[in-house]
Amino acid sequence: MDTQSHKIQLCFRQNTSYQKAVNRLAAMTPGVGSVAPIAPDARRVAFSGPITPDSTPSSMKRRLAPFLSTRPLPEWWGPLFEASGSDSVFLSPAWIATWIAIYGADFTGSWVHWEVDGRVVAGCLLVERVLRVKGMPFRSQFLNATGKAHTATPLAEFNDVLHLAGHGDTVARDFAQLLRERAWGRLLLSGHEHDSVVGRALAMVGGVQTEQRMQPSPFVDLRALEDRPFESTVTGKSGTRLRRNRRDYELQLGEIGVRRAADLAEALRFFEQLRELHLARWTDLDKSTSLAADAVVDFHQRLIRALFAGGAVDLLRIGTAERPVGFLYNFVVRGKVSMFQSGFDYAPSGRRSPGLLTHALAIEHYRQRGLREYDFLSGDAQYKRTLCNGERELMWTTIYRDRPWIRLLLAVRRLRARMNRAIELPQAA
Predict the structure, then answer these.
(1) Residues 144 and 261 in one domain
(2) How far is Cα 146 from Cα 142, in angstroms, rounded to an integer?
(3) 177 and 231 co-located in one domain
């Protein structure tokens, strides 16, 4: 047992209110392995214990090196990303390096890679930071360029251990073993797919409890459209609404087209105009957005500079020559477009939808360029349901380590949730 865990357990034993709470819980509920959800969109599953993985082939060797934010990416990351065929910009060298430059000083951790016969076949970055949950310190572990820093951070999706084809199962088993060997109280895995290396490793990690939030990730398979203009493939009420929306806009504003930023200066200018529209909309809705944070803006400006020359980032302006309807900030990796951020002009829209028009024209723009997919990334929205012809599922998973003090904390939290629900119930007359 580490010193921090010992101190926390001692604190609980000395705190009589916690002890009373646990005693009451024991009388009410057998076991504490499963805790009621915190939020409606969260799912919690109790683990019965780790699954013993198959032995790792002797030819595969795991290597670890300390993570230091002052050092560049390890030399194997770029070649591995290219050889893996990954279309996730969130695993690209530019994304990882930019994130480290802005947020890396907040974290410690390790670079991990796996070799077979001297060739790197998989790798990842494991970072950690001590975070407080209800006042209790948790050593929290994160995968790749994710984690809660002192300032707002960008959202990363399609997160996984980079790996070459044919090595996923073996890497998943050894990755689970590595996680069991490391010291952490919470493991937070963001934006991963169920059948990813991360997803396969989860069942082998073990823990007292997991919390899982799932989000749809709608997309448009551009290859399925073949030679047909995108608008003609949207049928029924959705198609009628889409075409009427465009006609109404063009009757008011004139012919609307798509302009792709021609150079870096124009791309950065489009990004700033997008941000202004985005902030105005979210302010009207009285909601917060990460684009209000200077650190996030700095991150994206650096990333645009890093990716623009290679064509991996697109800034699009949709509108007339005189007036924009919307802006899109997209990533383009191996024929896949990831729609990351948007800004729309709602002023002249009335009942019309600037988002619907912007995305429809952008999808057609990419179809004509011969790209294969337009991914809306995570989140549910009416315009996504109207336009998509496919959907994936991304998961955000938190695993709590099976430790006595963590069981106690979860037990108390469950008791508090039950007591709060009981207070909220209407009293009998």
Answers:
(1) no
(2) 6
(3) no
Q: Give the integer Cα–Cα distance in Å for 255 and 248.
A: 11
- Distance (Å, rounded) from C-alpha 373 to C-alpha 224? 9
User: Does 54 have pLDDT greater than 90?
Assistant: no
> Using DSSP, how many helices (H) and how many strands (E) does the chain show?
13, 14
User: Does the pTM exceed 0.85?
Assistant: no
The answer, yes or no, to whether residue 53 has pLDDT greater than 50, is no
Q: Which residue has the tokens 């077979």?
A: 116
The set of residues, in sequence order, having a beta carbon less than 8 Å from that of 401 and lying 6+ positions away, is 184, 185, 186, 187, 207, 208
**Average pLDDT score, the chain:** 85
Look at the block and give the residue holding tokens 């705190």.
Answer: 15
Q: 122 and 226: one domain?
A: no
Asked if 115 contacts 60 with a C-beta cutoff of 8 angstroms, the reply is yes
What crossing angle do the helices spanning 294-307 and 264-284 adopt, rounded to 10°?
150
Considering all CA atoms of the chain, what is the largest pairwise distance in Å, rounded to the nearest integer? Answer: 76
- 65 forms beta bridges with 111
How large is the average pLDDT for residues 411-423? Answer: 77
Q: How many domains are there within the chain?
A: 2
The string of pLDDT tens digits covering residues 93-106 is 999 999 999 999 99
Full residue range of the structural domain in which residue 128 is found: 48-207
**Helix or strand or coil: residue 122?**
strand
pLDDT digits (tens, 9 = 90+) for 211-238: 899 999 999 999 999 999 999 999 999 9
Alpha-carbon radius of gyration of the chain: 24
Residues 6+ apart with CB under 8 A from 113: 62, 63, 74, 76, 80, 120, 122, 123, 124
Cα–Cα distances in angstroms (integers) from residue 62 to residues 59, 75, 202, in the given order? 10, 16, 19
Q: Output the six-digit token pair for 26.
A: 């024991």
- Residue found by looking up tokens 């590595």 in the block: 178
Exposure pattern of 63-75 as b/e (b: 16+ CB <10 Å)? eeeebebeeeebe
45/308: higher pLDDT: 308
pLDDT digits (tens, 9 = 90+) for 329-350: 999 999 999 999 999 998 866 6
